[in-house]
Amino acid sequence: MKQILCLSHSPWQARPNRTQQLLTRLSDAQILFFEPAPPRDCSMPQQGRRMRPHIWVYTLPTPLPTFRDHPLLQKRRLDKITGFIQQTMEKHGMREPVLWCSAPNQSIFLDRLAYRGLVYDCHYFWNENFLEQESDLTCHAEVVFAASPGLAQRLAPCNDNIVLLPNGVNPLLFSQEALTLPSALAALKGPVLGRVGDLTSQVDLGPLIYAAQHRLEWQFVLIGRYTKPIAVQLSPFENVHLLGGINALDVPDYLCGCDVLFDLLQRDRPGSDVVSSRIYEYLASGKPIAVMADPRLPESFPDVIETAYDNYGFLRRCRRALEEGPSKAGLRREYANQAAWSSRAETVASILTGTGLF
What we know:
Helix content is about 35%, strand content about 20%. By secondary structure, the chain is of the alpha/beta class. The longest helix is centred in the first third of the chain and has 21 residues, at about 70-90. It starts with a strand and ends with a helix. The model has no long low-confidence stretch (mean pLDDT about 95).
């Protein structure tokens, strides 16, 4: 039977991330999904959670070693984690599976675990602190999946088998005929501009604040978790609404209730050309879209997305999006259909079969 041992960079989430979206659809493989250890102030989740018929989730017993750790502490942690993974593999009868890595610091396991082949799914521009580890991981991989052309170019010197695999979306969620307008949006008067995604100090709120100050009749809806400093910073603006996190299945309802969807830049991702799954969800909704972007990078979907590079430009692009007719909705949905996670997973399965890993 096909077997995959996945070392995930983030916990198993109710709102699935890229790794979950891909592996969930590889239903003919037995998958052990190892998520990072929880923070010290959080309890340890139940081990061996069967999240899908073919996926079991385990939580590492201790955090991965870091650059700052003493060498003895690094070894102790690594021995404990490796022993836990090996015991779990034995419990499930897993021998020499495909090792699926999603972060450079997982390269420390290359000489410690038995596996038949290595997959590195690169979804993020890791900083230079991880350069040596990422190079090691890329060099040893039978196949590397890169989420953007920029990532593929960056990793190309270390591996000849790099496959461009952008993020995706489940378009069927957004093609439902009976979507329900959430009460939080029904009560708003005036054009509604919405963003989905968590808000931290790394999100550049400048364009949003500028637009909220100059267009008091516009209602800006922020859907996702947010920090207390963010709430304080946005509290003076009566036309900015923090709705908090929502169920992933409710996202189509909220997007349907917006007139324009927008996105902002992340300060911690300069130069990144990775198109987030959020943008593909926007496309699947068919709604007009306005985004902030890095002027050094090519525009993503320039025929259906309004792109801005400064505060005033963001205001103008939002206005243009609000004035847009329905003519581009079908093209946006077509882009989303082409980016379906099911198609992305088919590509993964085909590549793994072609390289002899499956």
